[in-house]
Amino acid sequence: MSKQSEHGTALITGASSGIGATYAKRLARRGYDLLLVARDEQRLAALGSTLSEETGVRVEVLRADLTQEADLQVVEQRLRDDAAISLLINNAGVATNGPLAEANAQQVGTLINLNIVALTRLSSAAAASFGARGRGAIINVASVVALIPEMFNAVYSASKAYVLSLTQTMHHELSAQGVQVQAVLPGITRTEIWERSGIDEANLNPAMIMEVGDMVDAALAGFDQRELITIPSLPNADDWAQFVAARGKLGPNLSHSRPAERYRIAG
Question: Which intervals hold domain Ketoreductase (predicted)?
Answer without folding.
Answer: 8-148
